[in-house]
Amino acid sequence: MSKSSLAPTILNEKDQTLMILIDRGKYLFGEKEMATRKAHPNEQNSQFVTLSAFYIDRTETTVANFKKFQPRYNEKPYADGKPCPQCPAMGIEWSQAHKYCKWAGKRLPNELEWEAAARGNSTFTWPWGNDYLPQNANTFGKEDGYLFAAPVASFPMGASPFGVMDMSGNVWEWVKTESKSSHIVKGGGWTSDKNQSKISFRNSVDAKLKNPTFGFRCARS
């Protein structure tokens, strides 16, 4: 039985994406070892937060789906010059992610929701556990088999307890949460190290930045 079969799912009508239910409950947010040297300055102090139920996309928004919204989008500059319809949409700025989710009848998840979807009811450091396993995510290094972005859901062993795919690595994901004059991306990308791909790591960046490793997924209340 796959992890994704453990949580109820729905099909979002507009963009035909599979979404996974994240139950109402109390979830860990932030770094549980913030008081130790294992934590990074870009992480928050840990706390348990009660969230209402919501749905989140099982995978990052793909090139194929993003082209339904923005037909002129071209992934080739970000994918070694080759078409990759099942790769995540890359080089996306915050407003594009926001507008796509709105077009699809969804929204960007906030940071609390994103971490709940990535960690489930556990206190994991990465979606699969507390030990970094480079073969479980598309991050920096040769162990994962990809130099650039991978087609979404290429790492089933790296799924979260809810069955949400690629919450570590592949592309950084925009969330709704703002940080002063900037916005937050989560999860790390294909050039990220093990610390940047931790669930609790938060990268505060300019909302207009179109980094090749920036993508997104949507949520729905």
Automatic annotation (TrEMBL):
It holds the Pfam family FGE-sulfatase. One of its GO terms (molecular function) is formylglycine-generating oxidase activity. Residues 18-220 form the Sulfatase-modifying factor enzyme-like domain. This is Sulfatase-modifying factor enzyme-like domain-containing protein. It comes from marine metagenome.
